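<discrete_fold_record>
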Amino acid sequence: MLETKISRDEQTKWSASPARTEGSRWSWSSHSDHRRGLLLIGLFKLTKALLSIALGVGALKLLHHDFASVVLHVADALKIDPESHLIGLLMIKADLISATELRRFSLITFGYAAVCLVEGTGLMLEKRWAEYFTVTLTSLALPLECYELYKQFTPLRIALLLVNIFVVAYLVWLLRREPTKSAP
């Protein structure tokens, strides 16, 4: 039998991973926290993608229907008074929406869903490009979200703005904390 003797230093060198070495910045807990944060943001992005797809499909389904009758049908199903102020506003808006606008809206929501799918998938796979991509796109959307919040102040818009600010701040912190991996 061929037996190879390896010195204790060589054993330590080959068995210690960067996450376990004493002087290293990384530890298993920081890696799992990093993974958990990216997973959470990735799931958020994938959820936005699924909701956008559902919205786009819903808009396409309305193409060959009278939008006003659909509003009345939904109001009846939800036991909402058809004479209420909300239903009246929806009926006015329903008359203003054309088939071309519904198609355009569907196309935009499907495009947005595709972007969210790319972001979410890349983040869940812990791809560095996805972190940069998400920071860039989310940062570019923040002024628009602030403007929309200024136009109409709602709790949902506040929550979405805060979530997106948190996502950008967290990813920037992560990108600054982790050095880029250079080729050996």
